Fold Hexose transporter hxt5.
Amino acid sequence: MPQPISFLDWIESYRLFKKDKTTEANGGPKKQDETLNGSKEKSRALDGHAGQHNGNDDGAGGATPNRTGGVLSVDSGQPSDGEVEKMGVDNSRVKILRPRIFAMALIVSIGGLIFGFDTGQISGFLEMSDFLRRFGNSNGSGGTPAFSDVRSGTIVGLLSIGTFLGAIGAAPIADFFGRKVTIVVGNIIFCVGVIIQIATTNAWYQIAIGRWVAGLGVGMLSVLTPMYQSETAPRHVRGALVSAYQLFITLGIFIAYCINYATETDNGARQWRLPMGIGFTWPVIMAVGIMFLRESPRWDYRKGRIDRARTTIAKSYGVTENHWEVKREMREIKEKFDAENAGGGQHRWYEVFTGPRMAYRTLLGITLQALQQLTGANFFFYYGTKIFQATGLNNSYVTSMILGGVNFGMTIPGLYVVEHFGRRRALITGALWMFCCFMVFSSVGHFALDQQNPTNTPGAGTAMIVFACLFIAGYAQTWGPIIWAVTGEIYPTRYRAKCMGMATANNWTWNFLISFFTPFITQAIDYRYGYVFAACNFLGAIVVYFFLCESQGRSLEEIDTMYILHVSPLKSSKWQAPEGEDLVTADALHLAPGARDIRKADAAGMEGEHRVENIPPATDHHGIHDISGTNHVPEI
Ligand SMILES: OC[C@H]1O[C@](O)(CO)[C@@H](O)[C@@H]1O
């Protein structure tokens, strides 16, 4: 059945058609890969280096590593013109900054905006007079309505429980139904959650339930956004797109603060219903926008839609289907698919613990995501309005807006930091910086601020706001974006979706715990709560120092190799990948079910025969369906 063609596809086809015509008019040959429909790719599973690639072969995840560039930007590793001539492959320059890429970045990153908008919104709601009147407990001082700790904790925290479940459920749903459909479903679920909230007149639990439902959608999108981006974007911009996700989270928080500021002066339900209603805009744009985008080529390939996958990659790179980049991506997808299916595809979920150095990496990702929340950033984002009201500020919405602005503004240099200062250095410096900021914030709050009458100590209030801003500036440039980048790169592709799902779910778990327990804890120990976050930041610096390998400027294969070879994190910045040799990478290994077959000694010695586990060739004897359609991707 012919596939529906989107408007963007149409523009792209027309552009390529024009380009082809021009090339022909200039006498340039219309290059066709002659081997495309004919030759059978030799299965490599039997040779001692099963699944490993030769020097020119970029294999499991990228091209020749570029040691100086960003980790996710890799050297083109492109063959010389002469080589290309022989192979008859289109080697024209890839232009990345094209409307299609911008459109994709914008539409898909809205997943982050929805996440941020929901995070930012609730802090202002809790202080709005109409919201308090309708949903608060009526036991506040002087008879004014206020929220009990249980109630505010439940309203704020239930979203995170929903997001946890959404994050866990997203990957299997997206594997079954496809990325696009699941993104649309995530957006619809989010809208249902908002409808539940907006429809209530005075049932606080309806707000809480609505947030739980909306959270399911946000959680799904928090996994699907980076997944769709990394599966579909040209490799040169993958890193930047993943970071754009965090940028959109911060933009969402900031927009929510601004809208709250504008509506809180209203006396009626419009105060909170309007910002909530504006929340429909983002999922509608995203769900409609995604219809114009194509399905992830990785998913298409797995479902046997090889031609469609190839066309999508070509469109995403803005080149012809005979282009070198398209061949490379198709080969990469095929090899990973074959390697995963070797051994009958009997790979169980627990391989995320039993696979090559996987227990270490899985636990590291989970820990880092927990520590990202334990930096204490959401202490400000969820309860900022309340905190700054308690410091005696007239309009705490303004302070929230400043915090949100600093967060958003500082995430932009953060995109540079992530690629240029090294993950380890940036994370350790960031953690120590945030440690200092919390020490000052808490000490001033506990010892200098007059908590009963904060207006008596305006200097203390100002100092607290300044240190909160300094904290956020540090967070936005380091732990905010870098943790997402790091958890996207320490896993081999075959385990990435599961491991990222688990790590993201842990981020939400701690997000929930902090949002739920903050009111109780501050009630009990006031601003000394900040010491807890200070200690966690210190712990974060220690964990990074001892356990995280430096991945900046390395290809995904090199990072994988570093962990498999037990390279010491302390020496990892200086580690030299073996030049011109195959890297031992988990993606290229034809692992037996359980994936327990790789040990450090084998890997370090690169003894190919130890890595094969006597698995017969995947395509010939195991009934594994070669769905590549081409049976071929040329050796480049
Ligand atoms: O920018 C702050 C926001 O970033 C996150 O930590 C996600 O990376 C959120 O939990 C937080 O609200």
Summary: Residues 119, 246, 249-250, 372, 377-378, 381, 407, 480, 511 surround beta-D-fructofuranose (CB under 6 Å). The first helix runs from residue 7 to 25.
